[in-house]
């Protein structure tokens, strides 16, 4: 993966789990991977497990690392990553069940445990992790995952401590919670330490608004406004692409009263902005400027996943070049089809 990233002219790789560098957390394997990354000029970021105790049973591989002790498993991953030089670690709070459809595909709407109870349990577990993170000079960066809002993430970071917690900002996921991506990134900016970058199509459906992943520049996000608050954060803009089977479609069930009750922080202005973005996208799609509903539901082509990443990287560099022209003049165009490091 590191060699392929370098070959494409990209700057690094974000591994979802430190276990991708070594399934057994073998320190020699991790250090060899990091040495390879340095030789290739690649930046490396990685993740650990989920931190919502109601979601952790769905990660038996991680629990097994601690012989059933999930906290011990997390300690082992944090320490192994730190020894390898990785001190910014991804995590998230819950899951989205893609095999299901409807409101209950999202853990936010579980009926066996309220979302508020899940947040309380998550905060308690994060407090247990905090001393481990401090001892390893490490931040655990909670993702703006499909189930959680930036309002809730900011509160978690401020409660447990920004010295050990940060935010992995996913630009497309905030739309699933009906947040204006520009307002959301500004709200979370003081704590953003990592990123998942992709765009999104928004289309009206009978049950709400569909969010479908799109390459950066081919969706609803204004990237100049989006990047401005985080340009000085020394972030790796990590392009989270699409897998071969799906474009990551999720639904904002905005007409459902249960969905509405489940968003006590939702600002009316932001909801209206998301509706405006959907209307604008549909107009542009109708004019042939952007893909239509039918085009977005066509089978993925054999190279579409790669093109998603390449298109996103190209657009990001163009936008950054406009925002910081004096620093990016030599990164405007690829040479021989590849982007300079």
Automatic annotation (TrEMBL):
Domain Xylose isomerase-like TIM barrel, chain residue ranges per copy: 4-240
Source superkingdom: Bacteria
UniProt region (Disordered), positions on chain: 321-341
Pfam families: AP_endonuc_2
Biased composition, class Basic and acidic residues, residue ranges: 330-341
Keywords on record: Carbohydrate metabolism, Isomerase
InterPro entries per UniProt: IolE/XylAMocC-like, Xyl_isomerase-like_sf, Xyl_isomerase-like_TIM-brl
UniProt GO MF annotations: isomerase activity
PANTHER family reported in the protein's UniProt record: BLR5974 PROTEIN, HYDROXYPYRUVATE ISOMERASE
Protein name as catalogued: Sugar phosphate isomerase/epimerase
